[in-house]
Amino acid sequence: MLVCLALIGTAAAAESDPLAEFLASTRTLRAEFRQELRDGEGRVQEVSTGTVLIKRPNRFEWLYREPYQQLVLADGERLWVYDKDLGQASVATLGEALAATPAMLLSGERAVSDEFEVQASFTREDLDWVLLVPKKLSSDFRSVALAFRSGGLALMELKDNLGQTTWIEFSQVEPNPTLADELFQFQPPPGVDVIGEAG
Fold first, then answer.
1. Per residue in 149-163, is it b (16+ CB within 10 Å) or e — as a string?
2. What's the pLDDT tens digit per position in 104-157?
3. What's the pLDDT tens digit per position in 46-56?
4. How many angstroms separate the CA atoms of 170 and 152, rounded?
5. Closest-CA residue to 175 (of 148, 141, 196)
6. Taking Cα atoms as reference points, which of 104, 111, 169, 113 lies closest to residue 141?
């Protein structure tokens, strides 16, 4: 799912740590997002839109509405991926394999330094950027960059090991809304094929 562009140009070093400040002040989040998948040449291959909910620790929901409906949800113990068009859902236990993923970066409880190394922190075009690389060589992602505006999450870029980049722009960001745990529960609809063990 969801990656970092090579950030080019002269940038002033950020005086603070916007990621740490964001994580310290944000326990829940609701936002709209627009996601672009770009190939190694920067050409846009796919555009998706949807909504995201985050509740720390270890709960999130990425609901894709266009161009197809897909749900990626963590309920605190399991990760669900549901594709409505295919009538298929997969489920896996949240664990070490997901610790260094961008989704868990925003919703997990671990210190960022446990899984990522900060490569750069700077300000450009009124955005405060943090560039991270995963410490584990087995990660699917080469780097993750997050941009903040006035302390709020604005952009996320992820570069994967295939040279593709996922660019996610957030809008209508609502920090710390009241989100019940029940919002992060998923029950496969009747007739849906489930791959994996729900536990």
1. eeebbbbbbbbbeee
2. 788 887 788 888 899 999 998 899 999 999 887 767 788 999 999 988 999 999
3. 999 999 999 99
4. 10
5. 148
6. 104
Return the ∠ at Cα 90 (arms to 88 and 94), rounded to 5°.
160
Helices (H), strands (E): how many in the chain?
A: 4, 13
Beta-sheet pairing, 152-160 with 44-55: unpaired
CA distance 103 to 24: 16
Q: Which helix (H) or strand (E) holds 89?
A: strand 88-93
> For residues 73 and 101, what is the distance between their CA atoms, to the nearest angstrom?
14
Map out the domains of the chain with their CATH numbers: 12-173 (2.50.20.10)
193-195 and 88-93: which strand pairing?
parallel
